[in-house]
Amino acid sequence: MSLNSIFQYFVPKDKKFFPLFEQAGSNLIDMAKLLQESLYSTDPAKRTQNAKQIEDLEHKGDNITHQIHLELGKNFITPFDREDIHALASSLDDVADFIHGAANRIELYKVANPSQAMKEMTDLILEATEHVAKAIFELKDLKNIRNITDSCVRINSVENKADYIFDKAVAELFEYEKDAINLIKFKEVLSAMEDATDKCEDVANVLESILVKNA
Amino acid sequence: MSLNSIFQYFVPKDKKFFPLFEQAGSNLIDMAKLLQESLYSTDPAKRTQNAKQIEDLEHKGDNITHQIHLELGKNFITPFDREDIHALASSLDDVADFIHGAANRIELYKVANPSQAMKEMTDLILEATEHVAKAIFELKDLKNIRNITDSCVRINSVENKADYIFDKAVAELFEYEKDAINLIKFKEVLSAMEDATDKCEDVANVLESILVKNA
Amino acid sequence: MSLNSIFQYFVPKDKKFFPLFEQAGSNLIDMAKLLQESLYSTDPAKRTQNAKQIEDLEHKGDNITHQIHLELGKNFITPFDREDIHALASSLDDVADFIHGAANRIELYKVANPSQAMKEMTDLILEATEHVAKAIFELKDLKNIRNITDSCVRINSVENKADYIFDKAVAELFEYEKDAINLIKFKEVLSAMEDATDKCEDVANVLESILVKNA
Fold first, then answer.
1. Nearest CA of chain B to the CA of A14: how many Å?
2. Would you say residue C81 lies in a domain?
3. Which InterPro entries match (chains A, B, C) (predicted)?
4. Could you write out the DSSP letters of every residue in B27-58?
C-alpha cells in the first residue's frame, strides 16, 4: 500500500527505469561470461584482454547506475518505491564491482594458474547473473511474479553453493599452501568471487521486497 | 515529529515488529554464548559442534530478518519509521554475520589454540549483545528511554574496549608472529570479532536515532 | 520535485545542517594534512604524534555526525531530502574512518619506511578532501551549481589516479616483495588509503544526487 500502489492506475507505463535496469542486468551477464572465459583460458594474453573488457563494462555499468540516479532526481512518480530503485541500482553496481575486482586481482597478482575452485566460482557467478537478469526482465509487468520468485530462489541456491566452494577452497589453502604470498593471492581472488555471488543475493532480496510491496 | 508520531495515538500496540526484534536480539546472545564457550573450550570437537550450531542460528537470524522485511511490505503503519526498522533489522543481521564469520574462520583455518585476545573479544561480544537485546526489549514502550540510552552508552564502551584489544593484539602479531600464514589466520579471526562489536555499535546508533525521533 | 522543493520558499535559511557539514568537511582536510605530513616525515615520533591527533579528529568527526543525526530527529523541515542528509553525513564519516584507518595501521604494523606510493596516495587524499570541503561550502546556496559539479568531477579524477597508483603499487608488491608479512603491511595501508579516496567519490555521488533533485 505504498504511494506508488495508490497512484498505480495513473502511472504511465514506465519507459525510463526498466530499460536501464535491463541494460544493467545484461551487462552483468557479459561481464560474468568474460570472467568465466578468462579463467578457463590457458592463454595469459587472452586473460589480460578479457580483464580490460571487463573494466570497460564496469564503467558502462557505472554510467547506467548514474543514469538511474539522474532519472530518480527528475521523476516524482516512479514504477516502484524510490528507496527500492536506489537499492536495486546499488546492488547491481556492487555485483559489477566484484566481478571486476576478481578479474583485476588475477591480473595484478599475476595468478598464472587459476584453481579449479576459481573456475567453478565463475560458473556460479554466470549462473547467478543470468537469474538476476531474468528476474529484472520480468519485473516490468508484475504478471509473472512466480518467475521472479523462482529466479530469486535459484540465486539463493547458487550463493549457497558458492559459499560452500569458497569455504572448502580456503580451508584447503590453509591446509596445503605453504607459500603465504600465494595463499593471499588465491584467497583474495576467491573472496572477490564469493562477494560477487553475495551481491547477487542482495539483488534477490531487493527484488523480493519490491514484490511484497507491489504484488 | 515523524508521520509515526502524528499517528501514534491511532497505532494499535504493535504485535508484529517488536516480537521479531526481540527474537533477533536473543538469537544474538545465543550465538555469542556459543562463540565464547567455543573459544574457552580445549576440545576441538566441541568447537566444531558449536560452529555448526552458530551456523544454524545465523540461518535462524536470516529468517527473522526476512520476516521483518515481509511485515514492512504488508504494513502501512509501523511502530517507528520504516527506514529505521529496515536499518535496525540490517544491523542486527550484520552482528550475526560477523559472529558466524568469526566461528567459521576458526574452523576453516583450523585455529588450534585461540589466543587470550580472542577469548577476551568473545567476552566483549557477549556483553555487547546482551546490552543490544536489553535495549531492544525496552524499545516497545518508550517509557524507559533512560534504560535504552544506558545500554547504548555501554555498547559504545564495550566497542571501545574491543578496539583497544584488537589493536594491541594485531600490533603484537606483527611484532612477534614470524609465520605469515599464522599471522593471517589470527588477524582475520580477530578482525571478524572486532567487526561484530562494531556492528553492535551500529545497532546502538540506530536505536538512538529512533529515540530522538519518537521521544 | 521533492517535498523540500515544494516547501522551499517557506524554509528559513538553514542554520543547523550546513554549519555541521562545513565542520565535517574542514575536519577531513585537517586529518588529510596530518596524514600527509606524517608520511613525509622521517621522524617516527612525529608520525606517532600525528596518528594520535588524527584519532582525536576522528572522534571530533563522530561527534559532528552524531549532531547531524540529532538535528535530523528534531527537524521536520530540512534543507534537502532527509535520506540525502543521512547519506552525506555517513559518507563524510566513512572518509574520516579510512584516513584514521591508514594512520592507525602504519602505527600498529610499525611501518618504518613509507613507500613512494603511500606518499602519493596522501597527496591525493588531501586533494580529494579539499574538493569535498569546497563542494560542501558551495552547497548552502545553490547559486554556484557549476562549482559543485566541478569539484565532483575533480574528486572523480583524483579517485581514478588513486586507483591507478594503488593497482600499480600492489602489483609491484606481489612482484618484488618476498617477505609476506611486509607485503600484508604495505598492502593494507595502501588499501585503507585507496578506500579513503573511494569514499570521497561516494560523497561526490551524494552531492550530485542532491543537485539533481534541488536544482
1. 22
2. yes
3. PhoU-like_sf, Put_Phosphate_transp_reg, UPF0111_domain
4. HHHHHHHHHHHHHH---HHHHHHHHHHHHHHH
